[in-house]
Design brief:
two-stranded antiparallel sheet, 339 residues, single chain, eleven-stranded parallel β-sheet, TIM Barrel, alpha/beta
């Protein structure tokens, strides 16, 4: 099992995150990943990390699909891959209706079809086999109508890797199936190795549709980690993160993370966390997160306990564990246990 480091959002992470990235590279981590919501962007963070490293892989987890045209994303991927010497991996996600419509002004309709078309256009640009033409439900390249002057084009920069890896963030069954069908890697958030069966039908469906087997898909979940002697104190650091996602990422009845922990069997907790969070009682929402849920989706506590917990992720078939860590000692603990 390989290890990755999640940088999260700039501002939520230490302002000077480069020492952490350099330490991850020194320890033999496979990759470092940046994120974006509606503040810092993922591209600038990962470019800054690229400029301060030599070997470690670089990924976005994720670049938001509603934020950029497929062509703009492909151009960014080509450029970053060249500048980093072939270290870049393109992680994509549709975000959610709040960010897509409330921040980018892009309708959150039929996200599966939008994602499928988006990946098709990006891959066509990367392959550079011929001028790009795609006339779908969401993307029309070249644009029909308009001035009438648009014409099919090929990128003037030859991609370093026409098969540059594309990862998709997904936790809902249909999104997971799509990731398994069209992507090189799958980026689930709050994946529980104790509930891997929740995802197995969707993964099998997607892999069957692509004609591939499980070995051809990189499973790369994001996992928060806090190391310390006081187990409860470590759990309590992680609980506000879970409360934010389960309670506040989306509206009532349209929150993918809330749906996920319900599928794990935490229906009552999911309802209470969301009710409290949406009422503005965020501290109480964090307090309503069960200890058992933290232990299922995160790594917390003394070093020996964290090392022991890693075995569950390895046994579940995780290929790349992307840890959300702000402690250098946490990186060292997981590196020693994983390698």
């Amino acid at each position: 099992m390989k290890l990755g480091l999640s940088l999260g959002y700039w501002g939520a992470t230490p302002t000077d995150f480069i020492p952490l990235v350099v330490e991850a590279e020194r320890l033999g981590f496979d990759s470092v990943w940046s994120a974006e919501a509606y503040g810092s962007d993922a591209v600038t963070l990962i470019t800054w990390a690229a400029a301060h490293t030599e070997r470690i892989g670089l990924g976005t987890s994720v670049m938001q699909i509603p934020a950029r045209t497929p062509a703009a994303t492909a151009m960014t991927a080509i450029t970053l891959d060249h500048l980093s010497g072939g270290r870049f991996r393109l992680g994509l996600g549709v975000s959610g209706p709040q960010v897509s419509e409330g921040w980018h002004g892009v309708p959150f309709d039929r996200p599966l079809q939008r994602t499928r078309e988006y990946v098709e256009v990006v891959r066509a640009i990367l392959r550079r086999e011929k001028p790009v033409e795609h006339h779908g439900e969401f993307f029309d390249v070249p644009l029909r109508g308009g001035t009438g002057l648009g014409k099919p084009l090929k990128t003037i920069v030859h991609p370093l890797r026409p098969d540059l890896p594309i990862y998709l963030a997904a936790i809902g069954p249909k999104n997971v199936a799509l990731a398994a069908e069209v992507a090189d890697g799958w980026l689930p958030t709050f994946y529980s190795p104790n509930h891997q069966r929740v995802f197995e039908p969707a993964l099998a469906e997607g892999l069957a549709a692509s004609g591939r087997d499980r070995s051809e898909l990189v499973v790369a979940p994001f996992v928060p980690i806090v190391v310390g002697q006081d187990l409860q104190a470590c759990r309590d650091v992680i609980k506000p993160i879970l409360a934010l996602y389960v309670g506040g990422m989306g509206a009532r009845g349209r929150n993918f993370y809330n749906d996920l922990i319900r599928r794990y069997g935490y229906e009552a907790a999911a309802t209470r966390i969301q009710d409290l969070y949406l009422e503005g009682r965020k501290g109480e929402a964090a307090g309503a997160v069960p200890d058992r849920l933290v232990d299922e989706v995160a790594l917390a506590g003394p070093a020996a306990r964290v090392a022991e917990q890693l075995g569950a992720w390895r046994s579940a078939g995780v290929d790349l564990l992307i840890v959300g860590a702000y402690q250098p000692e946490a990186l060292r603990v997981v590196a020693e246990a994983a390698f």
